Amino acid sequence: MVVIKYKKKDEGIFFSHLNVIRISGIDVVDGPHARKKKMLFSGPTSVGVESEAEYVLLTTDLEEHEVENAIENNLPKWIELVYVKEVDKDINLLCDCAEYKVEFDDYKSCKGRIREFFSRDKIEIDANVHGVKQKLDVKDRVYHVKLGDEGFSIVVGIGNNSGHVVELVKSLLVYIKSRSEFEIKKTRQFLRRDGKWVDLDASLTMRP
Amino acid sequence: MDKRLKSILKRVQRPARYVGGEINCPPINTEVRVRFCLCYPDLYEVGMKSASLKILYHLINDRKGYNCERCFAPYTDMEQELKNAEMQLFSLESRTPLAGFNVLAFCFEDQLCYVNFLSMLKLAGLPLASKLRGEDMPLVYGFGSCMANVEPLAEFLDFAIIGDIELVTTKVIDTIMKSRLSKLSKAETLKELSKVEGVYIPSFVKVEFKKDKLSKLEGKLVKRQIVRDLDRTYFPTKLLVPNESTGEDEAFVEMARGCGRGCRFCQMGYFDRPVRERRVQNLVSQATSQIISSGSGGLKIDSPEPSDYKNLDSLIKFIDPMCGERNSKFILTNNRNHALQGHIVNMRRPHTVELSLEAGSQKLRDVINKQVSYDDIYSIFKASFKKGVTNVRLSFMIGLPSETAVDLMAICELAMTCKELYKKYRQTTRPLSIVITTNTFIPMPFTPLQWCGYIGQKEAKKRQDFLQSAFDKLGIKYYHDDPQLSEAKAILARGDRRLCRMLALAMDKGVRYLGGEGINTDEYDLAMYALGIDKDWYTGKKGVKDLLAWDLIDSLVGKEYLAREYAKSQKGETTLDCSHGCSGCELSKMGVCQYGGH
User: Fold this and answer.
1) pTM of the full structure
2) CB distance B16–A16 less than 8 Å?
């Protein structure tokens, strides 16, 4: 069993995780139909969002280097393979949350309003849940917000506990009355272990 | 990437359609004398399946001094975004606006996509009419199966290629290069192009109409060009790996071209004659390089009729282990014929048997020369059920000449017999799933049934409703085509240049056909009504002596031969498959057909 980590940048942000897998040929390294049976994605990033931390768990008998060889020549230039790492069978790759960096043009003049937005009792967004548009309060899914010089970083839930980061940022921009284009980049993913958040990369190196 | 474009792409569905940069994309040099853009008037995922596009793209890029990029029709959301941002439609590779190219080559494989072609020209900021496009604007030409009848696009295209693209394209691009080097005007370039065999120039054709009928068609007879030896023609060693799944992302090799079965409704069966095959050795080496270069998990072996390939067993013997070594599986396209089912049940879906029977009754199958008997059909069912097949997919046509309610009932009876045979020969406890699909018969140019009529939208709907209620009672899934779209296709397939105005109006009213989905198609009827076009005339029966809009194209099969076949179809007589004896089409006299004279 291996974990594959890759980055999506530039035009690569427009590729869905399934397309990346299909193009790379990862789904065939262990025979046909492997995708359906033996693949697990950890919080795949939405189309249009840059990511430095995309993970795929692949059940295979192949060695790390064999998987690496099989896919490294098949990735478009905007998708970068970070590593292929062998992992234990009982690894939990389903992360709880991810960190994103958000930037937009008039960020610097809006810091106060951004703080105000995140400190409200309710943070309502227009989300699309299983094809149904609905208002969703994601206050309890926003774990951490840190305002920086050029933008802010935010840690929100992913997977079943998704904070719908794109909709969240859109909602923020409406609140602060900004019409800027925004850039979101996923930087890390975290697992919850013994009540603490552990960076997924660190968790993979912690295995016995 | 341009910030404006990036922001647009974040708002549209499936943005990977518009970014290019696929694996195996050749480096693009924009500093060349002739810049080509290969355009496909449908969505990216449809266009990337096209064999013609795959071959032509690499063929041009592999030639020194030329450059070829691609452009596909944008989906409606992208079209709107481009309009809002006042951006022009651009190529995928260098994102150059289409107006910046020297040549735009459009691949036409479906008549319903003509409106998309016009919307692409409009989005590119180019005038629709060829005569309005100036010297600084690109030459626009068409190729593909729809070019059997160029006339519905006569006012928009500068020229069209008739026949196998590899052969004509190389001559065409060389002529264009020479013309550019000699600084010839557009009119002079077209004159030079008219000397190239297989090039049809609509503006050089004189057309007259009298009382709705085409009364005069004057111009040079254009002979369809054919590649005689497939093994000696260009075939790319690397193919692009699409950014969006096309549903057929496998590596691809072409096993054969042309079909000798002679089904009388099928354009490919006559317009792609004669049958030409690649050698096994070539196919295996092409397949190996394709799989290695694309990293694909599958190999698609393309052919109009795989069971007719002479060395099929030997090909499978070589291909199977080669694919096995690379964790790939191979798929024979169009593997829907009874002849194959004996030893290869559908490779894509091993528990499914697919048969294109086209007609439910023997009488109608004889009319269309589909040489399958009830015994053949039943023996396939028996053999398949014994092998554990639990899904049956049958496809038929409705609206065939001389079809009656009895013929429609025969489709239902066939499905019932299939159920009974399953009860008798089943190997599992799983229930049998039968899916029946019908398409409405559309008379196509260069087929023996080109003189027949189309049944009309209302009648098609009536027959579909009849079958729907019968299959509902039998618990069988039934799918059919959209009668409105099939009518539009029937009009365009045998249309003439009077339809150009209708197409332009329909495009303006928002009619599109993208990814198999018709958008605002009601406007076709309204456009025809507004322009006073009699659609019944276009869909109606034609006389064998009538002048047809495609009469200036020589398909090499011969109009007399088609008329003979038409007469035989009216009598319910069949003609043997070419491999069982030459039936004497014009090709046999040219010495290019392997079955000729036998």
Assistant:
1) 0.91
2) yes
